[in-house]
Every structure is written in structure tokens, then in C-alpha cells.
Specification:
This protein has 249 residues and is α/β, with parallel strands linked by helices. 33% of the residues lie in helices and 16% in strands.
């Protein structure tokens, strides 16, 4: 595609899933991304630090036409510093699957000025056949960290995806979005499944399930559970298969 047709020519992404979304749509626009931006695997751009501690002067030095960020993953002071330096910043707000689709369109089409990508239509189609409020088939604890243990709480994107696959988050009604909860309480909450993603904490078959004796454990791809981008095309199948493998359905 001809880069000159776009509204912007240089994009820096501060969010791994947004990096993948831009790279899958108009890779020539990306000039900078965080150290945590792992997809695509061959991404060759300037690394500007982490999502929580980006090197603001390094971002500014790249002279981006647009920086894409997220209100949850990035810190307000860093975004304010970029704006103060004259950088245009687009901040996404994603708590549900419909919000993800809307924000991806806004970022790519309205923000970057690129044509709506086919993968976004494919992602919407992949989820269209799944009811927004299916019958609950399992109640789960969903840890995202240990030492200390932290879990999905209220109003989270990953929680919304699981709900659409029939899994109720045991802490969906918690006052906090990512509460720290002692593992003893997690074991006693009455869940019949523990969902263990491989990010942000890398839970594995040898690190996580042993803390929930007698409870089926679903080891899931964190990219397919928590990222909003091209991964959403296969997310229903990938996450659904992991849940079924836990033998809870």
C-alpha cells in the first residue's frame, strides 16, 4: 500500500495488542514500540521501554505523527508528557469485546487513516455466532499474578471474553478490577475452575495449578484472552479449546 494515502506516516505504539493491530494493517507506519511488543515476531522498530515506563524523550525523538496508547496499560503522566511535547496521542478504552472492536476501528481508520482491515471484519465474524449472554457452564477464579496473588475483578476485557464463552468470573462483582486476594480465599470461593493465562504472569502446568488442588485448571493463551487485535480472530477457538481441555464442560 502507498504510505502517502494515510493520514499519518509515523506511529509509536505503547501497547502490545495495538502494536500487533497496526503491524497487521499497515506495518510501514510503525517506527517505535515497547519492549513487551512481541507480535509480530519479526517486528523491527525502535524499542522505547515498557508500557508503564516508556522513555518519553526517545518517543519524542522518533517524531511520531501519532502515539497509540490505552488508559489501563499506560500511565497518565507519561501520556501528558507526550502531549506537552506536542505529540498527538490516541488513548483507547477497552473493557468489553464491543468496545475493543469500536476502538480498533477508531484507532486504525480514524486515527491512522488506513482502510478498515479485513482481519477486523473476520474477528467480528468469529464472535458473532457466540451469544453475548450464554448459559453459564462454569465459575472460575482467574489469577493474573502470584506473589501476591491477584485475579480478574470487575469490568475487565478478559472477564467479558470469558463470560461470552460461558465462564463466570468468581470476582466479577469485586470493587476492584484487579484485586489482590490470598490464595486460601481463592480456593474457598466456590469456583469449579481456575483459568491460568500465560501473561502477565507466565502460569504453566508446573507453576500455578498446584496451588489449587482438586480444581480443574485451564491453561490459556494470554494473548488470546487479554489482547484486542488480530488475536481476536482465533480467540474463541483457542480459549474455548483450553477451557474444554480442563474437562469442565
Amino acid at each position: 500500500m502507498n504510505q502517502r494515502r494515510y493520514a499519518v506516516r509515523r506511529v509509536v505504539s505503547l501497547v502490545p495488542s495495538l502494536t500487533e493491530a497496526v503491524a497487521a494493517t499497515a506495518p510501514e507506519l510503525l517506527v517505535g514500540a515497547t519492549d513487551w511488543c512481541t507480535h509480530p515476531a519479526d517486528l523491527d522498530v525502535v524499542r522505547i521501554g515498557g508500557t508503564k515506563n516508556p522513555d518519553v524523550p526517545a518517543v519524542v525523538a522518533l517524531a511520531p505523527d501519532l502515539v497509540v496508547a490505552n488508559e489501563e496499560e499506560n500511565r497518565a503522566p507519561d501520556l501528558a508528557a507526550l502531549r506537552a511535547a506536542g505529540v498527538r496521542v490516541l488513548v483507547t478504552d477497552v473493557r468489553t469485546l464491543p468496545q475493543a472492536f469500536g476502538e480498533l476501528h477508531r484507532m486504525l481508520v480514524d486515527g491512522c487513516g488506513v482502510p478498515r482491515p479485513r482481519w477486523l471484519d473476520e474477528a467480528e465474524a468469529a464472535w458473532r455466532g457466540i451469544p453475548a449472554a450464554p448459559a453459564v457452564t462454569a465459575t472460575a477464579v482467574v489469577p493474573i499474578w502470584r506473589r501476591p496473588w491477584m485475579v480478574l475483578g470487575r469490568d475487565t476485557f478478559a472477564g467479558d471474553l470469558l463470560a461470552r464463552l460461558g465462564v463466570r468470573n468468581a470476582y466479577a462483582g469485586h470493587a476492584e478490577r484487579y484485586p489482590a486476594v490470598p490464595v486460601e480465599e481463592l480456593r474457598a470461593v466456590g469456583a469449579d475452575l481456575v483459568v491460568l493465562p500465560d501473561e502477565p504472569y507466565r502460569f504453566t502446568a508446573d507453576d500455578g495449578p498446584e496451588s489449587f488442588p482438586g480444581l480443574p485448571a485451564a491453561l490459556v493463551s494470554g494473548r488470546h484472552l487479554t489482547w484486542y487485535g488480530p488475536s481476536l480472530v482465533r480467540a474463541p477457538a483457542v480459549v474455548g479449546a483450553a477451557l474444554r481441555a480442563a474437562r469442565t464442560y
